[in-house]
Amino acid sequence: MDGAATSGHDELGRLVRGHSEYAARKRRLAERVAKLRLDYDPSPSQQMLLPIIARHLDDAERARTAERRVRAGNAANRLLRLIPRRKRPEEPLMSAREQLDRQVGKARSVGHSGKRGCSSPY
Predict the structure, then answer these.
(1) Is the separation of the CB atoms in 110 and 97 below 8 Å?
(2) C-alpha distances in angstroms, 9 versus 1, 54, 117?
(3) What does the alpha-carbon distance between residue 106 and residue 67 come to, in Å, rounded to a whole number?
(4) What is the SS3 string spanning 60-96?
(5) Is 9 helix (H, G, I), strand (E, B) or coil?
């Protein structure tokens, strides 16, 4: 569950030389903070919360006991609610007529298969 049993071992189960769970966790947390910065729009003071949130999310994913996973997940959710999500540019909605024209265009492009005995134009 916590990754310590698999990440520092080779395929035969022997310890890999030079592996450090501390360094692996540090890399995971840095990646998660970078992803959080892309998804959320934190103010400068809220940016200080991102490493804490990343630690909670990592615990929620890797903790051994269910109780600890749930606590970490809830703590991360509580903190993430404080930070506004980044606005994604939305594409304009199509009108019903444009959608109908698109569907009719697709149906026409499929055309007739040329099989004998088939009476359907599609």
Answers:
(1) no
(2) 14, 25, 64
(3) 52
(4) HHHCCCHHHHHHHHHHHHHHHCCCCECCCCCCCCCCH
(5) strand
Helix (H), strand (E) counts: the chain: 6, 0
Strand partners, 20: none
Token pair listed for 11: 């395929």
pLDDT in tens, the chain (122 residues): 444 444 677 888 887 787 788 888 999 999 999 999 999 999 999 999 999 999 999 999 999 999 999 999 999 999 999 999 988 777 777 788 888 888 887 777 666 555 555 555 55
Rounded distance between C-alpha atoms, residue 72 and residue 93, angstroms: 38
